[in-house]
Amino acid sequence: MNAPLLSVDDVHAGYGSSPVLFGAGLTVAAGEIVGLLGRNGMGKTTLVRCIVGLLKPSRGQVRFREQPIHGAPPHRIARAGIALVPEGRQVFANLTVHEHLAAFQRDGTLWTPARVYELFPKLAERRGHLGNQLSGGEQQMLAIGRALVTHPHLVILDEATEGLAPLVREEIWQALQALRAAGHAMLVIDKYVARLVTVADRHVILEKGRVVWEGSSAALDADRGLWHRHLGV
């Protein structure tokens, strides 16, 4: 079998004297979408921070494309091909939509600003607008587009549709389905489990910093008891 694109194994991490993760792990294969689930405060964002280099694990390994990256600086990990769409979007208030895409674009023809505009037509209409002139949904579209123009091998979305109106959420889900159809690997955190199971291939559930369940979308969809026990849904 081919090695996973991303492999997280026995990761322990925390903040100062406050441990958060206790041997957490997951894998993402090339072209696979994995949902990372759990109630608030269970360690999802901390695990993402370990993957992208914003937090160094105290124990365990993170490997990407078969190379160890745990403890590597964020810029090195980004250049290796991991792009983060962060919780809260974090767009620049004083840059236009097009300036965002141009500033982050790396060499390559797969994802150009023009293709991002095809994925998100609203951004084409707002290409001259500043970041602080965009709605929350438009900012999320921009954050995804900004990640794509780096030509990543893996996109991580932390709270993919949090705080968005239902119609805008659906636009984001449709975009993720389009990315799935194009063969993009993604790790997705989102609380809308009923929608995520239609997009993701597999899921990992964290509880108190430990993996308590992992399996296919079909298995998760069929066992609503898991939702109540571990997700509060």
Keywords:
single chain, 233 residues, alpha/beta, six-stranded mixed β-sheet, four-stranded antiparallel β-sheet, 36% helix, 26% strand
Summarize the structure.
By secondary structure, this protein is of the alpha/beta class. The protein is 36% helix and 26% strand.
Plain-language structure description:
The chain is α/β, with parallel strands linked by helices. The protein has helices at residues 44-52, 74-80, 97-104, 113-119, 121-125, 136-148, 166-181, 193-196, 217-222, 224-231, and strands at 6-15, 18-28, 33-37, 59-64, 67-68, 82-85, 154-158, 185-189, 202-207, 210-216. A six-stranded mixed beta sheet has the order 6-7-8-3-9-10, sandwiched between helices. Strand 9 (202-207) and strand 10 (210-216) form a beta hairpin. The longest helix is centred in the C-terminal third of the chain and has 16 residues, at 166-181. The mean pLDDT is 94.
Quick one: biggest sheet? 6 strands, mixed
Question: Taking strands numbered 1, 2, ... along the chain, how are they ordered across the largest sheet?
Answer: 6-7-8-3-9-10
Query: So how many helices?
Result: 10
Tell me what portion of residues adopts beta-strand conformation.
25-35%
Distance between the termini: 35 Å
Low-confidence stretches: none
Form type: globular
Radius of gyration of CA atoms, rounded to a whole number: 17 Å
Order of helices and strands: EEEHEEHEHHHHEHEHEEHH
List how many beta strands DSSP finds.
10
Helix content: 25-40%
Class computed from helices, strands and strand pairing: alpha/beta
The oligomeric state of the chains shown is: single chain
Mean pLDDT: 94
